[in-house]
Structure prediction request, 245 residues.
Amino acid sequence: MRAMPEPRWPANVHVSSHPLVAHKLTLLRDTQTQPKQFRELVRELSWLLGYEAMADMATTGKQVETPLEPMTGVRLDLRVGLIPVLRAGLGMVEAMLELMPTAEVWHIGLYRDERTLKPVEYYNKLPDAATVQVCLILDPMLATGGSSAATVDVLKAWGAARIKQVSLIAAPEGIRTLTAAHPDVEVHVAAIDRALNERGYIVPGLGDAGDRQFGTFAGPSSEPGHDLSDTSETAEIVRRLQRRR
Ligand code: PRP
Ligand code: URA
Prediction:
C-alpha cells in the first residue's frame, strides 16, 4: 500500500520532530495515564516545546569575565509574555517560567461552548497597552482553532507585536483556521493529528486536556440541563470546518 503524502503546512507551522517529544506525547495520550503523571508530562513537553519555540529569539552581546579571560557572550533581553489559556494552559506555565524566569504571565480565560464549539471569554485582565515584545500563547489543544484565533485577536487588540502559539496537539482544521486568520503567528506543536470527530475532539488526541490534568471528569456536560446527547448541530459545524480547505 502506498503511504499517504504528508499534508504540507505553511512555513509558520512547526511540528516537533524530537524523539523525546514523541515519546512523552505517546505516554500523555494513553488513557491509563493518571492526572499526576499527566501533569508531569504536560510540564516536560512544555519545556521541550518552549525550548524549540524560542530558537529564533534575538540576542544582544554581553561582556563576561570567565575565570580565565574576558569574552563576549550573549543575553536574551526580550520582554516575553506567557499567555496561558485557562484552564488547560495553566499546566504549561511552570516549565516556561523555568526557561524564562523574567517572563510576565497574563491569563486569558476562555472555554469552548460544547454545542457550538465557539470560544466564550470569561477572564481578561490585560492592562491597556502591551507590556511585552513577544507573546507565547500556551494551550495544550488546538482543535477547531476558535480559542486560539480569539486569543490572538485579544492580544493584537492589546498591541502585541509578535505572537507564537505553543500547543501539544493540533487538528488540521484548527491549524487551517488559525493560519488563515493570523498568518503572522508562529505555531509550535508536538503533533498534528488526523482530524476532529463529530464532537469537535481531536482524534486520536488525548481527550479533554483540562479534565485529564485536574481530574475533573464529571464536568459541566454531566450537569442537569446540559444535554449533549444530540450531537447533530456540533457535527454539522465540524463538517463545515472540514469542507473549508
Ligand atoms: C480546550 C483547550 C482549548 C480549547 C481548544 O479548552 O484547552 O482552550 O478547548 O478548542 P478549540 O480549538 O476548538 O477552540 P476547554 O474549552 O475544554 O476549557 P478548559 O481548559 O477549561 O477545560
Ligand atoms: N479540547 C480538548 O481538551 N481536547 C480536544 O480534543 C479538543 C478540545
User: Anything to note?
Assistant: DSSP finds seven helices and 13 strands in the chain.
